[in-house]
Amino acid sequence: MQCPRITTPRLVLRPWRQADLAPFAALNADPNVMEFFPGCLGAAESDALALRIVEHFAAHGFGLWAVEVAGGTPFIGFVSLSVPRYETPFTPCVEIGWRLAASHWGRGYASEAARGALAGGFDHLGLAEIVSFTTEANARSRRVMERLGMRRDPADDFDHPLLAADHPLRRHVLYRLSKSAWKKRNRAAMAALDQRIELVDAPPLQLPGDHA
Q1: Confidence (pTM)
Q2: pLDDT in tens, 164-192
Q3: Is residue 28 a contact partner of residue 45, using CB atoms and an 8 Å limit?
Q4: Contact partners, residue 180, CB within 8 Å, separation at least 6
Q5: CA-based nearest residue to 98, from 77, 113, 112, 79
Q6: Fewer CB in 10 Å around end: N or C, the chain?
């Protein structure tokens, strides 16, 4: 299987490797990272998520890229273009998201990785629109969305269908970005990133207990 590999000035967005599973599990078990998710994940749940990530790439040709610091830390989290598996008023759609280890917050990595993913989505994949959403209280992620040029219409806000009616994180805000708005705002950066997008082979992942 092949998938796009995207290089930005400081980061590499790449296929997943076997060695990513342990730091990914640590990230998903960190209460600070998972503050605005329903809960932390155990190691088996994290490994199962990694397998779904690989399956998403196989089905769609894009997905959740592992993010590494070029010449530095080999895995700091992920940035994603993904197709939600549930129905909302704005689906079907492609969503951009990110999840980075807390030790790498505050360095602009989320914004940089997301810009690379947006360039890949709009130019390489030809998407017309990309959305992003999070719970109302997640100010950090909302600031990243706004720095990317994404815009929110309060009329688009919604209750997440996978969360119970009384769940404190159920209310979500939706941000949108069209290809035309992205080009207008990021034309120069987009052209530079286009030259750093290439298709590469994705190595298979073997989860614990999987000896196939």
Answers
A1: 0.90
A2: 999 999 999 999 999 999 988 776 555 55
A3: yes
A4: none
A5: 79
A6: C
The SS3 call for residue 44 is helix
Q: Which residue type is seen at 87?
A: E
Q: At residue 115, what is the residue type?
A: R
Q: Is the peptide bond before 92 cis (omega within 30 degrees of 0)?
A: yes
Alpha carbon 123 to its chain centroid, in Å, reads 17
CB 175 within 8 A of CB 96: no
Tell me the CA distances in angstroms from 64 to 18, 55, 165, one per residue in order: 15, 10, 28
Residue at 152: amino acid letter: R
Rounded CA-CA distance 131/170 in Å is 18
Cα gap 33→25, rounded to integer Å = 12
74-93: burial string, b at 16+ Cβ within 10 Å, e else: ebbbbbbbbebeeebeeeeb
Computed from CA positions of residues 48, 49, 52, 54, in that sequence, does the dihedral angle turn out positive or negative? negative
- CA dist 18 and 70 (Å) reads 18
- Residues 27-52 have a mean pLDDT of 96
**Distance of alpha carbon 200 from alpha carbon 114, whole angstroms:** 20
Return d(Cα 41, Cα 23) in angstroms, integer: 13
Beta bridge partners of 96: 81
Q: Which of 113, 118, 114 is nearest to 178 (CA)?
A: 118
